[in-house]
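Input record (one chain):
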Amino acid sequence: MNRCEELCLMAKYPSRIVCLTEETTETLYLLGQGDRIVGVSGYTVRPPEARQKPRVSSFINARFDAIEALKPDLVLAFSDLQADLAAELVRRGIAVVAFNQRTVEEILQMIRMLGGLVGCQAEAEQLADSMDAGLNRIRETAWHFPHRLRVFFEEWDDPLISGIRWVEELVEIAGGAPIFPELSEARLAKDRIVDPAEVIRRDPEVILASWCGKRVNLPRIHARPGWRAVTAVREGRVFEIKSTYILQPGPASLTEGVRQIHEIVKRVNATSLGPSLVQRYKLEPSIDSDDHAASSGRNSASETAGMIPAAAPSSNSS
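The corresponding structure, as predicted from the sequence alone:
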């Protein structure tokens, strides 16, 4: 698309867009439409250049006067948690579209819908199809794993909250078996609170932790009463995944987030097999003794899986 075509497109569709969450920001950049964004959430991380845009909101708060000053012709919001923000912006005469995706399929649908809103339907279809194909490649690889590891995804520590639906779906795609499948369809975090004793009883072989808004404290997980009996804790299989990669219902979770989960599940499978079976299942045992110590809390577990051990921004999970 040449510059003339870009200008014509921006004249027909929204050209001054404010994104109140990071997944729509990343999607627009992937569609080549980053120039249309005039304001972003303060939690925006991806892509790095988006952080140069004016930051006008957190997740449940916004600077309404600052948004108005940007003269947006479209504001993009997410879920019931931003319903009050959307209502106030509408009262101020600003067009708002609020998405509410909670599953992998709905994330792909959001990408397609957003493309239509900005006149890039074909590009959005291609982007969504590419991500779907990537998920299928991971799913196919995971199908060859010798064992479906029991996985507990810990979204918050106190109270203990299990993973939202898209996360649990990605765990399955990556080769794991969520230990609380009956809770995955609960849309609200309060409906996914679990008893620590029940985690012990269900005995996860891997724990993936992503505490939306703060860094995971691995020693605290290990020190929970009775948790030394949990296979994941006993074997040093507790890992942190940065929230921006997995608790963002958009491109990041469907690419980097699921990749990290898949890599962890593959590595743990590899370390539990003998050399002949590793070769048979084409698994590379990439966790060595130092990595094992890292996931046991003596070092950052994020380093074990090639993740960034930095404080995570607030997630879009409610």
